[in-house]
């Protein structure tokens, strides 16, 4: 299975509009971050976790020509506002695309995108989605995906574990019961917004503490703000831990 980081930036993306800080002015392509999302590819299937406002741009960059499922962590704008663009794959594949989310997120999706679910919508060109509510582990063509409940400030959101890999973006705290579900993880992908404390996101130091506890073989940080330059931040991280970047591909067992 291949995992591609479609985006690794925070909700504003990097560069931040109107900012001229060293990161936003950087010529290093690693410092140019679209909103956070990943693509999983296996056995001819393509699955995205979150459809960001940059989804179309990300799909064009990665030459994505098939989409088999959308899995959502939560429904903040930077994670769902590209959902309408999945309709291109409806046209290509001539079938609905399954979408997976917990119950509160599915209710929000129906409220934010009512036209998708209105049977009598008068215009054409809308996404065709088949909703599936996540209430436990679910199977995607032989890939078992386990939801990982975490807290994003006071909002419950989901990370996901598939095989020996876990993807947890947008969190500030991980309950003990979820940490137990991460036992034996080999590739750990974590939110690490910046060094300074934040009320709804993990910092670099907090995520490093989780890495020390869980001891994965490799760890990658994502959902990165413009406070972190890629090269100097990466150089300061311990062995086996690195900042992810847009387009980074991992081959997973």
Describe this protein's structure.
The termini are close together. The chain has a single domain (2-244), classed as Metallo-beta-lactamase, Chain A (4-Layer Sandwich). The chain has eight helices and 14 strands. The chain has a seven-stranded mixed β-sheet with strand order 6-5-4-3-2-1-14. A seven-stranded mixed β-sheet has the order 7-8-9-10-11-12-13. Helix content is 22%, strand content 28%. With 253 residues, the chain is of the alpha/beta class. The model has no long low-confidence stretch (mean pLDDT 97).
The average pLDDT is: 97
Backbone shape: globular
CATH class: Alpha Beta
Largest sheet composition:
7 strands, mixed
Number of domain units: 1
* Helical content (DSSP H or I, runs of 4+): 10-25%
**Beta-strand residue percentage:** 25-35%
Second-tier CATH architecture? 4-Layer Sandwich
Q: Give the CATH topology.
A: Metallo-beta-lactamase, Chain A
Report the radius of gyration as a whole number of Å.
Answer: 18 Å
- The span between the termini is 7 Å
- Element pattern in H and E: EEEHEHHEHHEEEEEHEHEHEE
Structural class per helix/strand content? alpha/beta
Oligomer: single chain
Strand order in space, largest sheet: 6-5-4-3-2-1-14
Given as residue ranges, the uncertain stretches (5+ residues, pLDDT < 50) are none
- What's the number of helices? 8
| DSSP strand tally | 14
- Classified in CATH, the superfamily is Ribonuclease Z/Hydroxyacylglutathione hydrolase-like
